[in-house]
Amino acid sequence: MESYFLEWANLLLRWVHVITAIAWIGSSFYFVFLDNNLQKPNSPDLLEKGVGGAMWAVHGGGFYNPQKYMVAPKVIHTKLHWFYWESYSTWLSGFALFTVLYLYNAGTFLIDKSLMDWTPVMAGSAAVGMLVAFWFVYDIICRVFGFRKNGELIVAGLMIVVVAFCSWLANELFAGRAAFLLVGAMIATAMSANVFFWIIPGQRKVVAAMTSGETYDANALAIHGKRGKQRSVHNTYFTLPVIFAMLSNHYSFLYTHEQRWVLLFVMMLAGALIRQFFVQRHAFHLGRAANPWPFAAVGVVMILGVIVALRPAPPKVVSAVNVQPVSFAQVQSLVGQHCLACHGAQVQMKNVRLDSPELIKQNAQNLYQQVVVTKQMPMGNATGLTEEDRALIGRWFVAGAKLD
Q: pTM value?
């Protein structure tokens, strides 16, 4: 029953997480689109009101006229909508999912004893600590270098180094699947922390000054807008790398590779470059920026390079006649020792059951793929299945997966 309810918690939390992530990313992308398409109005009434940029759009049978005030409008006539629960809900649901799947089952999903033989509590504490540490390092870099001359280039360069180091460290400490997800969670935590610690507090100070009824210095308030804009722009570049890291932990050919941290880093960097293309192309069409195609080209070339580097070697032709015979009793013994805890009569993870000869035969292809080819199972090799054991299962399968 515990496994059953955990599966439901996994499903429902994942569902909520995806929905809230769509809402957050969608609003983020939309406001970046607006910033790059708003044009300074010529209308005297708009200029008098302090409108710094405006545009017309059509959607759903109606016309929309978004307007941006560079600091704040003189008065807000209708309800003010705040964009922050999309971010908070995404992080909270994501951390809850991480807790249920990885922290609660750290011994299975988080730990790879061939990398680091530590207790579930130590591994879970280290994982959470890395989320917090990444935010502090990123925040310090932004505060120290963000508003200097060429500050954003400095921040970008330093963060590339930080992300590369975190990719390497996570894959040195944790099981590959968990490491990929953890790197994505580090960046996602920084994104949500940007909203919580900088963007929303700054906006609240501006609104408080506007609604106080007292005279306020618009130039003094402008710093909050600059900081909020800085962190918002960073968030949009983090988006595609985070999405890739979150999705890639479902693809064992990536997180089981010997140089998996390099693959993760290269693909995330390619995502950031491609995002730069989408951000800059709107400004390019308005003559505000250079042609962004080189960013997209470099990103695509990097992805193609990874695809070529990971191409499978030509399969070796193995004759079943020449394969050293393996008895089914040997295979069944290994399955009983290493697989039945998760795929037996009481628990059937991923609906795979292996507690009878017929069921082992029925799932032979899946067993071979997960245990021998990708070596994904047992998860984190928690039961200590040896390479010789994997080879034995492989020989049994190649010989025809017989039950005699």
A: 0.82
